[in-house]
Structures are given as C-alpha cells and as structure tokens.
Amino acid sequence: MTVAQAFSPDYPTARARFRSAASARGFRLETHPIAEDEDLTVDVAIGGDENPSRLVVVSSGLHGVEGFLGSAIQTSILEAGPESWPLPCGTGLLLLHALDPFGFDRLRRCDPANVDLNRNFLLDGESYSGSPAKYREIDWLLNPRTPPGWPDLLLIESIPAILRHGKDELKRAIAGGQFDFPLGLFFGGHGPSTTRRFLEEQMPRWVGVADHVVHLDVHTGLGHRGNLALLLEDTVTPDRVRWLSDRFGSDRVEWSGEGIAYPTRGGLGSWCQATFSDRIYDFLCAEFGTYSGTRVLAALRAENRAYHWGRPGDRATRRAKLALREAFAPSDPAWREATLAKGLATVRRAFEVCFDPTVVA
Ligand SMILES: [Zn+2]
pTM value? Predict the structure, then answer.
C-alpha cells in the first residue's frame, strides 16, 4: 500500500477501511454509536491475547479533525497483516478509532457541544469552571462573534497582545483550556462529555488485567513540521520521564512545561493514569507538527467563527473547513510519508517498551 492510500479523505472512508481491515485481520471489532440520531461511531479493534498482561493502545481522533493521521497509522497496522505485526503471547493491541467521530466527520477539533475533549477529563475535585485571565482578555480576538470576513486580520490584531503578554505566555493562556466561554476555542465543557462517559464505561473492560499499558494518543498540529514529540503528563515522576526518554528518545519525549508542551487541565492522559493507578500506565500524547502555530491557530479561529456565526455550507464556511483539514492533515505527500513512518516506528517501540523488564514505577 502506498502512503497516498493510507490516508483516507474523510471520516466515512476512514471508518469503513478500519472496520474491514480489522475484520480481515481477525481482530475483535466493536462499534459504539456515540450520537442518538446520526451514524457516528467510535470503532474499536482488539487483537492478541484475550487477557493480555501487556497492552499497547493506539487512539485517534480525540480532537476530531486531527484523526486523519491516527486513523492512517491504525489502518496501516491492520492492513499490513500478522507477519509485519506479530503479537507475542501475553500481548494485546487495542485500537480506538475516532474518539470524536463528530469532529472527524465535520472537520472540527471539538465535539458537538464545542468541547475540546482533551480538556474535558478533569479529575475528582476539579471543577468545570475558570479560565486563565489572559484568555478572558483576548477572548474578543480569539472568538469574534461575527461571520467570517475578508481579510482576516488575526495577525495584525494579535501583535499588540503578543507584545503585551509574550508569545509563550499567550500560548499557555490560549491552549491550556478554559471553562467559561462555551463557544470559544479550547473550551473544556461544563461537565463530562459523551466521549468521556463512554471511556469511563468501557476502558476498564479493555484494559482488563494488563499490568503494563503503553498508550499512544495521536494528535497533529503542534510542533515543527513533520516532527514527532511524545508529551508526558506533568504528574509523571522524574524517574519515569528518564526511563521513557531512554526508550523512546530524549529528543522525542517532552514533559509539561518543556519544549512544545504546556500545562493543560483535563487531559485524557491524566485521567487514564489516575483511573489505572494500580498498574503501570504510560500515556504518551504523540504530537506531529504540521504548520506554524500562528497558521494553525488562525485556521482554528476561522473555522470556529464560521461554524458559530457563518452560514452552514456556504463558500466561506466550506473554505474554513478545508483550511482546517489542511492545517491538521497536510496534503503534502512528503509530510504524510514522514509522519506515518514515525508513527508506525513508535508503535513498534511501544511493544518493545511493554516487555522491558527494567520497570521503574
Ligand atoms: Zn490534539
């Protein structure tokens, strides 16, 4: 299969390929409807041992439109066949396809309630409220309450804000998550999302008795173009960070607050690690760079603006959506080839890491 074929052009195609490849490969396939009146599903393929002690998890599309690469990685594994991906005794492979099927299908980065799902997994005792002060200050700039116009003045308008706050501080304020602007970018929700409730219900069954889980949650749009960064939760111990850096590469592994990573609230990783704290659960947010941070943010802003304030299906809205897809899944064959290869190599590494006996908790 060529790289061009590995990437699907849309969600229905991606899902159909995932399903048929999982069945052909003999994986157990589960299809979970996630919307009442629409054919949107989270599809799950499970391979290997019935009750594995070592489990590799690869999830895609937690951020909807970011699902193209994750889906390509998952489907490539399934389509390559058992000779290329043998599952040794005691190992399991769990593939979670399109955790936000709505966003994947509609080319949005959030769910039907405008929720950024990777800000929605607050832990017990945390409340779905509050926003960085700087987010409040620049809400007018990030989330204009008017239909899309031309030219988009984000770049010019944002210069004073950048000068006032500094680029890094601004990045933290914008992307770290907010809980007060339901139509705004990076909104973490006012309660547990459908996807979260679904995972709360199903994850314990899938994880089962595994005593070591390595989970790669595939994202795009952050970091240098074509680069892969493996972001760890800031609650991971320094010893564990070192252990993972030694195995996945110190140039890849990043900890919150370092490199391109920034502290966020309500991440899926912290929830997985808190839920399965009775075993070793390594969660790596695999971030693949696409375009510059400014371009990605401008695309997010334009699509969000068109979605809430524009007319559905008109030219401006359609243009904003295609620009968002390009921002998170570049059509450039060189980008696709490089990121798919890095993604597959990282899944291979995850299997080796799973069996590494020198475990440091
Ligand atoms: Zn993401």
Answer: 0.94
